């Protein structure tokens, strides 16, 4: 079958976004054609998608880009340990063997947890090469005092998190206070130290696609290594139109600086068909580099179970019950 060349999440290496000086002109010049964005996004779901062994290969690649996530009020150390075990072995061994993938070291891209579970996840993933990502800065609202948000980042990095998912103050976007947003994200970036920073924009709260585009550019200017749609707690999370606007902002930033920024859609991506649409968009808009886990992540929990179910269907020709594909 057609397969991708590697599945292990690469170490991020030394490539970081150094950011750039604040430029209000660059933000004010941004415009978004809503009807064109919606028209382009609508073509993805209506076209014929990849099939058979090619679909299986794309779905295996998607697994390597998943930030396997648990962000619930009833999280326990036991739940996080089970999730980490699933990240190490995301697909049942018999399915991998049938696909000829037993020796390829397939894992998820990361495990994402609250700060209190970072040490538990780091211990459970020791030796696997799977990074631990911590949501931070008063997730999900991001409205705690700034000094507390900075200390939370520092605490998670000290506990072993190598990726930090910060949330911006959406009020800065809604009031057009772009310099305040820049300064905030830049301070978060400095607090992250060597840890990679994903900036969550909370796009469902930003009202317009133009605001989404502007917030994306500001976050990248301030040093974000990834931009991410949502916390998963908003009423509207990742959508294809929002994603198109954000990844074109990534393309514009690369044209301006030569720096490649990662993208993470999160919230509401729960089926294999959903994730294929996002992968196709990434390939068509940014190229093959953005199908790798160092530049593309998917924030999800239930998605992995559906992908595993689709892979079993490819192998056996039959759909199995959901309980055969537990998350932990």
TrEMBL record:
The protein, known as: Deoxyribose-phosphate aldolase
Family: Belongs to the DeoC/FbaB aldolase family. DeoC type 2 subfamily.
Keywords annotated in UniProt: Lyase, Schiff base
Region annotated Disordered, chain positions: 1-22
Catalytic activity: 2-deoxy-D-ribose 5-phosphate = D-glyceraldehyde 3-phosphate + acetaldehyde
Pathway: Carbohydrate degradation; 2-deoxy-D-ribose 1-phosphate degradation; D-glyceraldehyde 3-phosphate and acetaldehyde from 2-deoxy-alpha-D-ribose 1-phosphate: step 2/2
Pfam family, one: DeoC
EC primary class: lyase
TM region positions: none
Gene assigned in the entry: deoC
Species this protein is from: Sneathiella chinensis
Enzyme Commission no: 4.1.2.4
